[in-house]
Specification:
Layout lengths: L1 E28 L6 E3 L4 E7 L2 E6 L7 E3 L1 E24 L11 E14 L2 E9 L2 E9 L7 E4 L2 E4 L3 E2 L5 E7 L4 E5 L3
Antiparallel strand pairs: 1-6, 1-7, 2-5, 3-4, 3-6, 8-9, 9-11, 10-11, 12-14, 13-14
Length: 185
């Protein structure tokens, strides 16, 4: 099985990636016009963190189609920290069925996306158990109920669920539920 990969460098380290997604199109090209066997399971998504490529998504148990065309979006939510690159690896071959048919399957990747938060260190700290920790801030937008000025710049302090892996022990009631500030890792 042959493969290729495509790397995208974010240009900076993103504090936290919470979702990766890839939209793929498969087109069967057969001279006879018969439907082909379209396999979309030959794809993997990696993220670069901790000094190495880490496999974060490999589709399993995805049905194949006997059709001339298929478009599918693969996505996975999670928490990956201090990420600077994303890689899509596409495997080709073993995707034409039945083997005696002449033709090929063309794969196209429309979009490769990563969502996340790029928290910044503006100097806010808290102490617990003799250790000092940094609190993350973001560029302010209308979703930030808690804001802080540093010089002439306004930052938003995101309020996250207390169960979040980067939640600080600092609790704030936002009028709906109890939330926490973000601890920078």
């Amino acid at each position: 099985m042959a493969y290729f990969h495509h790397d995208i460098d974010f240009g900076q380290t993103v504090t936290r990636i919470t979702k990766v997604e890839c939209t793929t199109e498969c087109i069967a090209n057969y001279p006879s016009g018969e439907p082909g066997h379209l396999g979309v399971r030959y794809m993997r998504i990696y993220l670069w963190y901790s000094g190495q490529w880490n496999l974060v998504y490999e589709p399993i148990n995805i049905p194949d189609w006997f059709a001339p065309y298929a478009k599918i979006t693969h996505s996975l939510e999670g928490n990956w920290f201090n990420v600077s690159k994303i890689r899509l690896t596409r495997y080709t071959g073993e995707s034409v069925y039945p083997p005696h048919m002449d033709g090929d399957v063309e794969y196209r990747t429309f979009e490769l996306k990563a969502w996340g938060n790029n928290y910044v260190d503006i100097g806010l700290r808290y102490s617990k158990g003799g250790a000092t920790y940094r609190i993350g801030a973001e560029a302010v937008d209308s979703s930030h109920k808690l804001r802080i000025y540093k010089g002439a710049t306004v930052y938003g302090l995101p309020l996250i669920p207390i169960s979040d892996p980067v939640a600080t022990p600092i609790r704030i009631n936002d009028g709906i539920s109890v939330k926490a500030l973000v601890k920078l890792t």
